[in-house]
């Protein structure tokens, strides 16, 4: 997956959760991550 400008992605592989910093296409990235079977949250 290519990173999108303005969005930072942090993955915790132990818990299978991904945190996306707000900005850019954060919501789009989260949907893609969830579609791959991982949990995803957009940081506040």
List the helices and strands and how they pair.
Elements: E1 9-12, E2 17-20, H1 26-35, E3 39-42
Parallel strand pairs: 2-3
Antiparallel strand pairs: 1-2
3D structure, described in words:
With about 45 residues, the protein is an alpha+beta fold. The protein has one domain. Helix content is about 25%, strand content about 25%. It contains one helix and three strands; from the N terminus they run E-E-H-E. The chain has a three-stranded mixed beta sheet with strand order 1-2-3, covered by helices on one side. The longest helix has 10 residues. The termini are far apart. The mean pLDDT is about 85.
Main attributes?
alpha+beta; 3-stranded mixed sheet; 44 residues; globular
What's the gist of this structure?
The chain has 44 residues and is an alpha+beta fold.
Q: What is the CA-based Rg, rounded?
A: 9 Å
Low-confidence stretches: none
> What's the structural domain tally?
1
Spell the H/E element sequence: EEHE
Order of strands side by side in the largest beta sheet?
1-2-3
Span between termini = 23 Å
Global geometry: globular
| Helix content percent band | 10-25%
């Amino acid at each position: 997956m290519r990173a999108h400008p303005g969005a930072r992605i942090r993955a915790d592989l132990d818990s299978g959760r991904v945190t996306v910093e707000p900005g850019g296409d954060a919501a789009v990235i989260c949907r893609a991550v969830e579609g791959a079977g991982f949990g995803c949250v957009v940081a506040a």
